Amino acid sequence: MAASLHSSVYPLHSVYPLDAHTSARQVPRVLTIAGSDPSGGAGIQADLKSIAALGGYGMTAITALTAQNTVGVSAVHVPPAHFLRQQLEAISGDIIVDAVKIGMLGDAAVIAQVRDWLEEVRPAVVVLDPVMVATSGDRLLRESAENALRSLLPLAHLITPNVPELAMLLGEPEAADWASALEQGKRLAAEYGNTVLVKGGHLPGPECPDALVNTTGLLSRDVVEVSGPRVATRNSHGTGCSLSSALATVQARTGNWETSLREVKPWLLGALTASAELQVGRGNGPVHHFHHLQRASAPGAFAAALWEAAVPELESIHGLPFIQQLQSGELPERDFTYYLAQDAIYLNGYSRVLARAGALAPTEEEQLFWARSSQQCLEVESELHRTWLSSREAPTALGPVTKSYVDHLLATSASGSYAVVLAAILPCFWLYAEVGRQLHANYLNAGAAADHAYADWLTTYADEDFAAATRKAISLTDAAAVAASDTERAAMMEAFTQSCRYETAFFDAPRLFA
Fold first, then answer.
1. Is 243 exposed, middle or buried (0-12, 13-18, 19+ CB in 10 A)?
2. Which helix (H) or strand (E) holds 318?
């Protein structure tokens, strides 16, 4: 096995995300404050489905009752505002609320009750979806309540307006293109001091980007854009409700808005893509909130879901200075030596986790595969010391990222099932193989210069034996997922994504600690 390209558990722009993950809830308790949709596609019905689909426990406080279906809204009834307050107090008086999603509010009296409750309870995560107009075009917020809604904005951590709602909140004409929408998002974020999710769903074109906008320095940059294709479907009923409640749920678990969006967006893309399977209604039908669960037990499906989760980390890895300078040959030798020294330390710990996978494996074939992989780790560690580290002044201390990554793997191997252990160790195979493949291809495309400072190293990335071992590791992990329970598959995904983040951080560690 070639030396692994290891990384991190930090959420891309934070060096130590472990604190956030330690305090985050594995099963977030999420309260949705919104209206009811009897057709089940939007409102609290969509919220509860989204919360459950993303692994949360859903609760509701109903602000309004609607008579609607996929064709339109025919009537709205807003119960007395004091009854909403009774619902809110009944929940918060007994249950810890990890996150709140706010949707349709109806009128100013309802908004006042929600604002007073938020000021008293101060939930850790508040996502406000300023529902003003339904997908069908029907108005869901009285015009007299618009100013009251604006008074609620400073209490939200994330605001998720669609393009028409973004313009209404600012009192400006509706944005005609993505660049104009982003500028409006910046103005709204600056005015209220929170993060705004600008959504491209209402804009024309084949792409449907989303962007987190914050001008206070909370994010890694003022605008964090996540691209995605537009799904050709009329079944978009409740998309905004579903997105905002899903973000509230995942944010309570991750503590990082960018990480949360990168997890939720592919899920919603799948929900839109699979929406036609539901065959609900004659108009704008609902999305398929549980599309991923129906496919979870199919061979190959879980590996595809893992790959979907890994892609954002791969994109981040390719953008790191370490990788770009390694590619160009301009990487300082100090940084490369630090990386290799930490890699040798990592491989020692990783070999123990591979051995543990072998001990847990249910078949002799799998036991032998993981045992050989463990032995190869130790052989690579020895080779690193012989060929590079012995002739240079290399740091011998355990780096903070290396320690965090190895601790994560060891903890998983001590308490997790065979399937979860495999998910945790897979990124070291998969992401390394993909990054290496791309580096080697770029090296060849650039002419494979013999005087490249790291020519020998880049050539090792063409190792077909490691590529074959990676394919085997993916296959074994996918097979373990097929036999796993829903709860176990969720734990596998969490362990995998955590290791993927560590992979990113490992590549970035030389910049921070060398």
1. buried
2. helix 301-318
**For the residues 123-141, what does the mean pLDDT come to?**
76
Using DSSP bridges, classify how beta strands 29-36 and 195-199 pair: parallel, antiparallel or unpaired: unpaired
Burial class of residue 412 (count of CB atoms within 10 Å of its CB; 0-12, 13-18, 19+): buried
Cβ–Cβ < 8 Å for 242, 44:
no
Nearest partner of 509 among 342, 326, 319, 329, judged by Cα:
342
What's the rounded Cα separation, in Å, for the pair 514 and 509?
A: 7
Is residue 507 within 8 A of residue 320, CB to CB? The reply is: yes
Structure tokens at 110: 């309802």
Residues 39-50: tens digit of each pLDDT: 999 999 999 999
State the DSSP H helix or E strand holding residue 102, giving kind and residue range, or none if neither.
strand 99-102
For residue 332, give both structure tokens.
């300082």
Average pLDDT estimate for 13-27 = 39
Report which DSSP code applies to 231: P
Among 24-28, 160-164, 494-498, whose mean pLDDT is lowest? 24-28
Strands (E), 154-254: 158-159, 195-199, 210-213, 223-226
16 SS3 class:
coil
Report whether pLDDT(335) > 70. yes
Q: Phi then psi for 13, rounded to 5 degrees?
A: -125, 15
Is residue 425 over pLDDT 90?
yes
Pairing state of beta strands 223-226 and 210-213? antiparallel
Evaluate whether 499 touches 335 at the Cβ level (below 8 Å): no
